């Protein structure tokens, strides 16, 4: 089970957010996210809108109906989430 899902439950927003956090610095279109995370494209669209509203994600470009997004690494909440995810993964590693 993925780290954020384990803590926050198995929700599409958690899956999409964790995917973008784990792929910081990379941009994706919504179809790529939907395919990789096995979430409906329409659900990804709703989730991305919520994440954009919270400024956790930034839209790089929009061309016709294709949106390209990435995690907003400048957002303070995002920085905390990145650190949190890193720390949780460290705890899971065998010592």
Kindly describe this structure.
It is a single chain. By secondary structure, the chain is α+β, with helices and mostly antiparallel strands. The chain has a single domain (3-86), classed as Winged helix-like DNA-binding domain superfamily/Winged helix DNA-binding domain (Arc Repressor Mutant, subunit A, Orthogonal Bundle). The chain is 58% helix and 16% strand. It contains five helices and three strands. It has helices spanning 3-8, 12-22, 30-37, 41-53, 76-92; strands at 28-29, 57-63, 66-71. The protein has a three-stranded antiparallel sheet. The chain is globular. 19% of the residues are buried. The mean pLDDT is 88.
The CATH topology label is: Arc Repressor Mutant, subunit A
SSE order, one letter for each helix or strand: HHEHHEEH
CATH superfamily: Winged helix-like DNA-binding domain superfamily/Winged helix DNA-binding domain
How would you describe the shape? globular
Mean pLDDT: 88
Strand order of the largest sheet: 1-3-2
**Class from helix and strand fractions:** alpha+beta
Q: Which CATH architecture is right?
A: Orthogonal Bundle
Radius of gyration: 13 Å
Please describe the topology of this protein.
Layout: H1 3-8, H2 12-22, E1 28-29, H3 30-37, H4 41-53, E2 57-63, E3 66-71, H5 76-92
Antiparallel strand pairs: 1-3, 2-3
Helix pairs in contact: 2-4, 3-4
